[in-house]
Amino acid sequence: MLLALDVGNTETTVGLFTTDRLAGHWRLTTTPSRTPDxxxxxxSAYLTNAGYxxxxxxxxxxxxxxxxxxxxLCEGMTVATGVSPVQVDGHSPLPITLDVDEPLxxxxxxxxxxxxxxxxxxxxxxxxxxxxATTFDCITADGRFIGGVIMPGVRTAADELVRRTxxxxxxxxxxxxxxxxxxxxxxxxxxxxxxxxxxxDGLIRRIRDEWPTRSQDRPLVVATGGLASxxxxxxxxxxxxxxDLTLLGLRLAAEALGLGW
Length: 261
Description:
The chain has seven helices and eleven strands. It is α/β, with parallel strands linked by helices. The strands form two sheets. A six-stranded mixed beta sheet has the order 6-9-8-7-10-11. Helix 1 packs across helix 2, helix 3 packs across helix 7 and helix 4 packs across helix 5.
């Protein structure tokens, strides 16, 4: 079995693959203070509760954008499984080209997202990942990552709004029924979610206008990430939601790097 971990600044997504099938996945809080033993115990508990033995893990692959967590988590996975994790980064020999000015600074999540998109769709694609940041990653049909856009994430923007204002309450992010809110919480939801949706649509249109290759088909737009299912239905430009795209990219990276499981 293959254990795949996407370590974000807010959440860590864990996926378990048996052959090429995603057999289970879990979302954990990314906690910098967690020790290796705590990571080992936590992930082992999820695996065991799902009916899998940690000793059955033959390979572990990690994509992390949280450096303060990476070493502790990787040590914990070694404790839990007896396997040393392989990390994906800009040095990894993967079947895509990082055609940008500073390829070694591209986040591991963006690398595996575009790897998955290139293999899955085989056409020009924009991947919108709704996480702590909302990222727009551009991959061409021939496997060139040509850059993208990074904007504040939906929850990040909402939390910052509440933190910096004295009278605006913390508000659960649920899809608003109307743009014009009649209660303060509804006003916040409308501003955050409709604002994010319109920002995403506007950026997608601008990206398409600048797309370097001119083909008959315009770039496909797919969404992933923890908040994709909330925001994507409010947009007009997102065409598909692929909640497990990053985990799929990690599995494809594991194959490209020659890991066996």
